Amino acid sequence: MAVISREQMHERYRRSSLLSGTLYQRGTEVLLGGTTRTSVYFEPYPLYMERGEGAYVWDEDGTRRIDFLNNYTSLIHGHSFGPVVEAVQRQAELGLCYGAPTRGEIELAAMLVELVPSVQKLRFCSSGTEAVMYALRLAKAYTGRDKVAKFEGGFHGAHESVQFSFGPGLDYSESLDPIPTSAGIPASWAEDVIILPFNDQGTTEDLIRRHHQDLAAVIIEPIIGSGGVIPATREFLASLRAITEEYGIVLIFDEIMSLRTAPGGVQAQYGIFPDLTTMGKIISGGLPLAAFGGREEIMAALDPRGEGPLIPHSGTFNGTVLAAVAGAAAMRHLTPETYTRLNDLAAKVAQGMERLFKGLNIPGTVTVGGSLFNVHFTDR
After folding, report:
1. What angle is formed at CA 208 by the lines to CA 205 and CA 211, rounded to 5 degrees?
2. Per-residue pLDDT of the chain (380 residues; tens, 9 = 90+)
3. Can you give the three-state secondary structure of 101-163, one letter per residue?
4. 3: part of which helix (H) or strand (E)?
5. What pTM was estimated for this model as a whole?
6. For the purposes of burial, counting CB atoms within 10 Å of the CB of 321, is it exposed (0-12), middle (13-18) or buried (19 or more)?
7. Are the beta carbons of 289 and 320 closer than 8 angstroms?
8. What are the angstrom distances between the C-alpha of 315 and each of 24, 69, 124, 311, 320?
9. Which of 101, 160, 187, 356 has the highest Cβ tally under 10 A?
10. CB distance 186 to 160 below 8 Å
11. In the beta sheet, which residues pair with residue 254?
């Protein structure tokens, strides 16, 4: 197998993406790193896309590529899915957004409440970060406690409560101290964050018992997504449900990525139901939209008709009708057979890549969770 240097690889890349290189230079004049998302930047510069259709994208140089990312798993039907495009076009002719509620947000909410077993009531927002932020705020208001427990390697957006211990690698530190993953996080935030080891039932239960009087919530990705597609075991999730119920701690499933793995997400697949759930990615048809929901008695703090302490929840684009109709069109076409087909395809891709690694003597493995998979270049 031929080996090329990093410099040679970059030179090949530059020759095949001249227009992307030009756009990058232009972009750096007005955008930091030439883009508005840190996650899409890589050296020497990112590819700039012109269009997408189905499983393919075309970059600005006209090169067609298979898209395994699909805007970070949000486009479950692929690019330019006909029913979504048609729904958006119809709604755009009627109006893009209003300072008033719409039929569209009710219809999408009804679909999600029916689909996700633990969700009795929900609210929409514009991003997963907001969904997690409000879920944690609800938990704190409901319990009267201030601390939050998250798992090492879990990613829950950009809010200060969860910007800790995202990328620790293969081994977690014995101390499990909260490690900020961003500059600008005040040290005081770490005082209210407990870090737990993923899929380690004994240590997790010990830490929850130790801190239970102060813990408002335990938040977990049932399948760690950005941290490498690592599924939690059913037994581990069941133990979390049991111990959080024992101590009156709100259990939050962050199913923003894992909702695509089965109808109703991992909670429906395993029959283990949290108190609150955050959702995003596939529910919007490719437009900016996320949601959080769960038990009505916890969500009641958001009800403007209520008499108790209210959590204000506003946002110019919360549940905006364009995203709502796009999301409804996308979700309407997700049949049980679709989930099965996508999961089978992911398993086949992973098996094929494992065979390639073995045949080429490359230290690598592929982890799979439903229709999600991730390549790890390691022999562990």
Report:
1. 150
2. 567 899 999 999 999 999 999 999 999 999 999 999 999 999 999 999 999 999 999 999 999 999 999 999 999 999 999 999 999 999 999 999 999 999 999 999 999 999 999 999 999 999 999 999 999 999 999 999 999 999 999 999 998 889 888 864 444 456 688 888 888 988 899 899 999 999 999 999 999 999 999 999 999 999 999 889 999 999 999 999 999 999 999 999 999 999 999 999 999 999 999 999 999 999 999 999 999 999 999 999 999 998 877 899 999 999 999 999 999 999 999 999 999 999 999 999 999 999 999 999 999 999 999 999 999 998 77
3. CCHHHHHHHHHHHHHCCCCCEEEEECCHHHHHHHHHHHHHHHHCCCEEEEECCCCCCCCHHHC
4. none
5. 0.95
6. buried
7. yes
8. 32, 28, 9, 13, 10
9. 160
10. yes
11. 278
Tell me the two tokens of residue 123.
Answer: 């609210």
Return the exposure string of 359-370: e unless at least 16 CB atoms fall within 10 Å of the residue's CB, then b. Answer: eeeeeeebbbbb
Residue type, 123: R
Q: Return d(Cα 131, Cα 256) in angstroms, integer.
A: 9
Sign of CA dihedral 81, 86, 91, 96: positive
Both structure tokens of 92? 């755009």
Neighbours of 74 (CB within 10 A): 21
Tokens linked to 3? 């080996």
Residue identified by tokens 């709502």 is 324
Long-range contacts of 105-110 (CB under 8 A, 24+ apart): 105/319, 105/321, 105/324, 107/324, 107/328, 108/283, 108/319, 108/324, 108/325, 108/327, 108/328, 108/331, 109/291, 109/319
Nearest to 44 by CA among 34, 52, 53: 34
For residue 35, the tally of other CB atoms under 10 A from its CB is: 17
- Which domains does the chain possess? 1-67 (3.90.1150.10), 82-332 (3.40.640.10), 335-380 (no CATH)
The answer to whether 274 and 239 are in contact (CB under 8 A) is no
Measured CA to CA, the distance from residue 334 to residue 341 in angstroms comes to 11
